[in-house]
Design goal:
Pfam families: DUF7384 (PF24109). This protein is an alpha/beta fold and about 220 residues long. The chain is built from twelve helices and five strands. The chain has a domain of about 140 residues: Rossmann fold, CATH 3.40.50.
Length: about 220
């Protein structure tokens, strides 16, 4: 049986970790891969092929550090992802390598069992995106998954210089979790993404069940 996020968060609370540890673990993980370290050095996107569909602001990529922080730390990362979990019409977009990175970070800072259960749960939520070898997981997920927003703790992605370079190549905004939680407005997005008047959250962010439906 797939675990609920509420259960995962309770189990993760047993481990004492912080944002700095999450970021360091992801840096170590990606630096260990020659392909990843080459692509991360400049976060290049110039050679990406054309995307097949239009990007949309209700499609969001959470980088591996944001995903791990959501589980292990809470705070702004959880607030940011709760905004997505609370709305069935939004999409979390992630490639397999991005989830591999997050699972590895969780296992290194907590436990293999928690990491495996988290992966099973997040697989039921995310929409997959293709990622050729050597591409940056978050950038590739956004470009190939038609997402217009990335949530990341990586300063090489969130810095103003990188943001300006990305705007010349792809329609995407990269924000730290706190900034994303501040600017992401389901009420403003709903008329464009779905149509009609925004009805409020339609899903329990801890169970992913429709609002008002009990989870058994």
């Amino acid at each position: 049986m797939t675990a609920m996020f509420a259960d995962l968060f309770d189990r993760a609370a047993e481990y004492d970790t912080d944002i700095e540890a999450v970021s360091a673990a992801l840096t170590d993980r990606r630096s260990a891969s020659e392909d990843d370290s080459e692509s991360h050095a400049g976060t290049e996107t110039a050679d990406l092929p054309p995307v097949d569909c239009d990007s949309s602001p209700d499609r969001v990529v959470a980088d591996a550090d944001a995903l791990a922080a959501d589980l292990l730390v809470g705070g702004p990362a959880r607030e940011a992802l709760d905004a997505l979990r609370s709305h069935a019409w939004t999409a979390l977009v992630a490639s397999d390598p991005l989830l591999d990175d997050a699972e590895a970070v969780i296992a290194s800072l907590a436990a293999d069992g928690l990491a495996a259960d988290w992966r099973e749960t997040v697989e039921t939520w995310r929409e997959p995106a293709a990622q050729p070898a050597g591409d940056h997981p978050a950038l590739a997920s956004a470009y190939r998954g038609a997402a217009m927003q990335i949530v990341s703790l990586d300063p090489s992605l969130t810095g103003p210089g990188t943001a300006a370079g990305l705007r010349d190549r792809m329609a995407v905004s990269v924000r730290e979790p706190r900034a994303f939680a501040t600017v992401f407005s389901p009420a403003r997005l709903y008329p464009e993404a779905v149509g009609g008047e925004y009805p409020g959250p339609d899903r329990d962010p801890r169970s992913m069940d429709p609002v008002g439906e009990d989870h058994h």
